[in-house]
Amino acid sequence: IYFQAPQPPQGWTGVRSATVDPPACIQLSKAVFKNQSEDCLFLNVYTPKIETSQPVIVYFHHGCFARGSARSDFLGPEYLMDRDIVLVVVNSRLGPFGYLSTGDRFSVGNYGLKDQTAALKWVKENINRFGGNPDTVTIAGYDSGSTSVFLHTVSPMSRGN
Question: Measured in whole angstroms, how far is the alpha carbon of residue 73 from the centre of its chain?
Fold first, then answer.
């Protein structure tokens, strides 16, 4: 899906194993994340309880829009699971795969931000299945993740998600 908007995820039936992290998105170096792939649009959802309607934090990782991952070994829930919140950590395309623009209709750019917007929409539509309240979602981030937060607060594409 090079240089295209993200597509809604395909559903599945039955139990889906979430015990192993999928690959990180392709980035300039394999020094930190050796397992990288173009098929990398995923998010990790951490919840202490499923039966309640808890506030939600959606976290966008750091890495200057060029590196990083939502993998649990990079950004896990260790400090938040005793706080009665649902934590969602989002993966999005990085570097040229996420932000290259040719300045015309062929590659308009900002696909990484579109990935994040799609994740926010998914959270709004599905977080109740994980014990989260879709009406109490806070977006957060560090470094480029905080830049993403700012951009989502001013983007019409992110309103209502």
Answer: 15
